[in-house]
Design brief:
Keywords: Hypusine, Initiation factor, Protein biosynthesis. GO terms for molecular function: ribosome binding; RNA binding; translation elongation factor activity; translation initiation factor activity. InterPro entries: IF5A-like (IPR001884), IF5A-like_N (IPR048670), IF5A_C (IPR020189), NA-bd_OB-fold (IPR012340), Rib_uL2_dom2 (IPR014722), Trans_elong_IF5A_hypusine_site (IPR019769), Translation_prot_SH3-like_sf (IPR008991). The protein is mainly beta. The protein contains 1 helix and 11 strands. It folds into 2 domains: 66 residues, SH3 type barrels; 72 residues, Nucleic acid-binding proteins (OB fold (Dihydrolipoamide Acetyltransferase, E2P), Beta Barrel). Helix content is 8%, strand content 51%. The strands form 3 sheets. The chain has a 5-stranded antiparallel sheet, covered by helices on one side. Strands 2-3-4-5 form a 4-stranded antiparallel sheet, with no helix packed on it. The longest helix is centred in the last third of the chain and has 12 residues.
């Protein structure tokens, strides 16, 4: 054995892993899959028959849940694919800063100030207009694989 010391750098955060394995043949439309390292929502699945070399193949067409890009992948149906852990959390909108960051109220009463306004023009307009009109807004934040983004907004009434 060598006398060298080995230092391993852990890139994972404590707690659950960012993805879990799932057999390709069991992933359905509207499910989630990781393609080219990006968390995606499956919009189309087609499965080919077993061929000369014995594996049925699944052809996935999916949309990146954060940037909306269309990605495709072909995987043997018996092989495992990575599936991202996707969470949705609702927060009440408190403030919008000049530099495009939002201040959100969490369930335990703390504030979350590390999220930017969404890049989707329609959603951005809904949030800014509602906020300027003094409405109480609740934003839905989708998180997967260490990324977070506002993906929906709800009006829960006007402030008193």
């Amino acid at each position: 054995m060598s006398d060298e010391e080995h230092h391993f750098e852990s890139k994972a955060d404590a707690g659950a892993s960012k993805t879990y394995p799932q057999q390709a043949g069991t992933i359905r439309k509207n499910g989630y899959i990781v393609i080219k390292g990006r968390p995606c929502k499956v919009v189309e699945v087609s499965t080919s028959k077993t061929g000369k070399h014995g594996h049925a193949k699944c052809h996935f067409v999916a949309i990146d849940i954060f940037n909306g890009k269309k990605l495709e992948d072909i995987v043997p149906s018996s092989h495992n694919c990575d599936v991202p852990h996707v969470n949705r959390t609702d927060y009440q909108l408190i403030d919008i800063s000049e530099d495009g960051f939002v201040s959100l109220l969490t369930e335990n009463g703390n504030t979350k100030d590390d999220l930017r306004l969404p890049t989707d023009e329609n959603l951005l307009k809904q949030i800014k207009d509602g906020f300027d009109e003094g409405k109480d807004l609740v934003v839905s934040v989708m998180s997967a694989m260490g990324e977070e983004q506002i993906n929906a907004v709800k009006d829960i009434g006007t402030k008193n």
